């Protein structure tokens, strides 16, 4: 291990203080050695301490668990990743472009390459599980960012479609199948899927920074429960997460010697299938995000919840796994420092690319309005810099409250490459990195940030 148990505990306490977050918890496993640490408080309302067995919303890390579950269906011959999903579910249309909807496969859903503009489209629905069916109509009207299979753009709604297909295949919902095929097989006992179950154990409550930076507890525990498949219902612990990650490090083999996944399925999940627009060194396998440096791949996934950020990561080359959680909406920089502390031999997948600001790159090509559903980004000239204004659209988030999140994020940015901008100054959630693609008529047509694409709609 790169760090001792006592050092990990001390460093985590320092990080919680320095980043002005309520608390954090981490578990690290490498070469048979397990270390855990917790610091701060789990709930600002009660002051209860964060402990290593505190449960939390793991958010979109659920997608790696989900991909694992879907691969078990592939192994049983119930699902083919490359067959159009309409063959399994003729009543489901994903996106307004009918030709695209007829061609989309399950692989497009698992590697975020559908091209459908629906990433964070929360809509008002009934309760889970019945309410998931209410998404069929709004997702059938969704626009298009790119043709399918071209590049990745993170799409939560694609996993809603995956659940709808799953129901047609098995007659059961996502939670039922995940419990049966993954959670139960792992033997983890602290992983639950409802607030009613979570209240029986110590569970972290998220927070947001006030205007002076002081953290304030969220008043909403979770996003809509119909987003179970993208990750809104999974409540777990770092040690339960680690049991799951260790299974992936062990090539799908469980501690009792049985297999949860075949070698072929583990390899398929870890094979790059959909690169980021930034290039082939990062993107998606199946469920996993990957980052490649010098021939070594790191597999990871983050998870956001209301006022919380989780992170999970494996490095097969180092026989290393890590799971961590921070109960603050600005927790990502703390996770980045934890990764650097526990696996210093590899670049952190959470790191924002660094570079010198360049004055030789023309600014006009970046200027314009870039839209995706729920978000509008306006980039304008401001003297020798660019002003970036990112505005969320509450009218398109009718299924979730957003009163505790800033509706407008504004910062100055400058080029660090021919098609890349980096924010200037200190931002509460860390630096912002944006890349731009499809140059046409002197301007870029696509903007990529936060793993999501937006299309230019105006100069």
Structural account:
This protein is an alpha+beta fold. It has 2 domains: 1-351, DD-peptidase/beta-lactamase superfamily (Beta-lactamase), CATH 3.40.710; 364-458, Beta Barrel (Lipocalin). 24% of the residues lie in helices and 27% in strands. It contains 12 helices and 22 strands. The chain has helices at residues 5-19, 62-75, 85-88, 98-103, 106-110, 136-140, 157-170, 174-186, 195-198, 238-249, 263-269, 332-342, and strands at residues 23-30, 33-40, 56-57, 116-117, 143-144, 207-209, 215-217, 235-236, 274-276, 279-284, 289-293, 296-305, 308-315, 320-326, 368-372, 375-382, 385-392, 408-417, 420-423, 433-440, 443-449, 452-458. It has an 8-stranded antiparallel beta sheet, with helices on both faces. An 8-stranded antiparallel barrel has the order 15-16-17-18-19-20-21-22. A two-stranded antiparallel ribbon has the order 3-8. Strand 15 and strand 16 (375-382) form a beta hairpin. The longest helix is centred in the first third of the chain and has 15 residues, at 5-19. The N and C termini lie far apart (52 Å).
Task: Give the CATH class of the largest domain.
Answer: Alpha Beta
Q: Report helical residue fraction.
A: 10-25%
> Compute the gyration radius: what is it?
21 Å
Report the span from N to C terminus: 52 Å
Q: Strand order of the main beta sheet, please?
A: 2-1-14-13-12-11-10-9
Overall outline: globular
CATH architecture of the largest domain: 3-Layer(aba) Sandwich
Give the strand tally.
22
Low-confidence stretches: 402-406
């Amino acid at each position: 291990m790169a760090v001792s148990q006592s050092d990990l505990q001390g460093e985590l306490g320092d990080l919680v203080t320095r980043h002005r977050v309520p608390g954090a918890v981490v578990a690290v496993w490498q070469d048979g050695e397990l270390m855990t640490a917790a610091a701060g408080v789990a709930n600002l309302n009660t002051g209860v301490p964060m402990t290593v067995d505190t449960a939390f919303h793991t958010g979109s890390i659920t997608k790696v668990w989900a991909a694992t579950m879907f691969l078990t269906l592939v192994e049983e011959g119930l699902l083919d990743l490359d067959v159009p999903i309409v063959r399994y579910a003729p009543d489901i249309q994903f996106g307004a472009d009918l030709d695209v909807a007829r061609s989309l496969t399950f692989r497009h859903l698992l590697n975020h390459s559908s091209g459908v503009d629906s990433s964070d489209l929360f809509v008002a629905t009934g309760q889970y599980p019945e309410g998931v069916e209410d998404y069929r109509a709004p997702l059938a009207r969704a626009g298009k960012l790119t043709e399918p299979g071209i590049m990745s753009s993170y799409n939560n709604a694609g996993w809603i479609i995956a659940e709808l297909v799953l129901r047609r295949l098995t007659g059961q919902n996502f939670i039922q199948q995940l419990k049966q095929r993954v959670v139960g097989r792992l033997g983890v006992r602290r992983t639950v899927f409802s607030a009613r179950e979570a209240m029986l154990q110590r569970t972290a409550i998220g927070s947001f920074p006030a205007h002076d930076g002081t953290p304030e507890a969220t008043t909403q525990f979770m996003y809509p429960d119909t987003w179970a498949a993208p990750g809104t219902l999974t409540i777990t612990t770092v040690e339960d997460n680690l049991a799951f990650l260790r299974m992936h490090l062990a090539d799908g083999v469980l501690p009792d010697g049985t297999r949860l996944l075949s070698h072929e399925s583990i390899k398929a999940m870890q094979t790059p299938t959909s690169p980021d627009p930034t290039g082939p060194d990062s993107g998606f396998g199946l469920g996993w995000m990957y980052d490649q440096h010098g021939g070594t791949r790191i597999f990871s996934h983050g998870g956001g919840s209301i006022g919380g950020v989780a992170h999970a990561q494996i490095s097969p080359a180092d026989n290393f796994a890590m799971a961590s959680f921070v109960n603050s909406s600005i927790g990502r920089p703390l996770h980045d420092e934890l990764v650097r502390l526990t696996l210093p031999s590899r670049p952190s997948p959470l790191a924002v690319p660094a570079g010198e600001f360049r004055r030789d790159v023309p600014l006009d090509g970046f200027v314009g309005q870039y839209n995706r559903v729920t978000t509008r980004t306006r980039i304008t000239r401001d003297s020798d810099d660019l002003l970036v204004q990112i505005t969320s659209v509450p009218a398109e988030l009718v299924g979730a409250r957003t009163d505790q999140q800033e509706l407008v994020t504004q910062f100055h940015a400058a080029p660090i490459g021919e098609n890349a901008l980096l924010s200037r100054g200190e931002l509460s959630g860390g630096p912002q990195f944006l890349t731009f693609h499809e140059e046409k008529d002197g301007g870029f047509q696509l903007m990529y940030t936060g793993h999501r694409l937006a299309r230019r709609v105006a100069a």
